TrEMBL record:
The protein's annotated pathway: Amino-acid biosynthesis; L-leucine biosynthesis; L-leucine from 3-methyl-2-oxobutanoate: step 4/4; Amino-acid biosynthesis; L-valine biosynthesis; L-valine from pyruvate: step 4/4; Amino-acid biosynthesis; L-isoleucine biosynthesis; L-isoleucine from 2-oxobutanoate: step 4/4
GO molecular function: L-isoleucine-2-oxoglutarate transaminase activity; L-leucine-2-oxoglutarate transaminase activity; L-valine-2-oxoglutarate transaminase activity
Catalysis performed (reactions): L-isoleucine + 2-oxoglutarate = (S)-3-methyl-2-oxopentanoate + L-glutamate; L-leucine + 2-oxoglutarate = 4-methyl-2-oxopentanoate + L-glutamate; L-valine + 2-oxoglutarate = 3-methyl-2-oxobutanoate + L-glutamate
Primary gene name: ilvE
Record protein name field: Branched-chain-amino-acid aminotransferase
Cofactor(s) for this UniProt protein: pyridoxal 5'-phosphate
Gene Ontology BP annotations: isoleucine biosynthetic process; L-leucine biosynthetic process; L-valine biosynthetic process
Amino acid sequence: MIVFLNGEFVEDHQATVSVFDHGLLYGDGIFEGIRAYDGQVLELDRHLDRLINSAKYINLHMPWSKQDLRDFVLETLRRNELHSAYIRLVITRGRGDLSLDPTRCTTPTIFIIATEVNLYPAELYQTGIKAVTVATRRVAGDALDARAKTLNYLNNILSKMEATAQQAHEAVLLNNEGYISECSADNIFIVKGQQLVTPPAHMGALEGVTRNIVMDIAAEIGLQCQESPIRPYDVYAADECFLTGTGAELIPVVELDHRPIGAGVPGKTFQQLLKGFHKYIKAHAVLID
Ligand code: PMP
């Protein structure tokens, strides 16, 4: 596998970063998860815009333009001869010393890994997944803004461990007020009648690129979509529930906290949105070649 690291394309076993890298020492960095389908990258601009905003948020000066970043991503795919892939773009504060002080880090580290996509087993897209509300809370948005995609994922990992220990596929994380924020690596939507609801960013939700796509599709097919606070009760009482993410795409949730959601099977609105999503992929992508 060829990895892009600090301006060079190298074999993955040669792609090493310093033990003094502040991304490793302190989670001081930002990232994006991006997806390519059949030779096209989906919503590359939206991902890069979010990355650039995350960099502004953590006050990391990037010496690369948006066009540079675009070229690095596309070239990583070409070098690996990948047409469909999951792409991880990571930028850290770079090598410093053992103090927290980011001014000791003179050059950010950048790397891009492109791999085969591998998330939930295929049958779960047909049957739906089980989720549990976990004890681990989402990092408070007034401590770390949920819109920034930083390397601070420890609580997401703890939440995933809790879900796995309970034989569930996904964790639903609450914020400090007991409202649902999102899942360990996905946004959440519920359907009630003709209404789609997803938690707003200020409740602790990442402004997911897939979440935005679903909102666009909903508008196109005449479904109302609102960003409103929801509690576990709203999910128990919903007709349908599903998650969105670059890796997961759209996946139905048929059970939360051992309660079936709606009829306990993937619903009609989900199927409709999934169809719309597949169409959207074809219509809105950047060609690799
Ligand atoms: N929330 C979290 C915590 C995530 O890690 C992700 C995956 N990037 C998402 C939501 C979904 O965002 P996107 O649709 O941009 O992948």
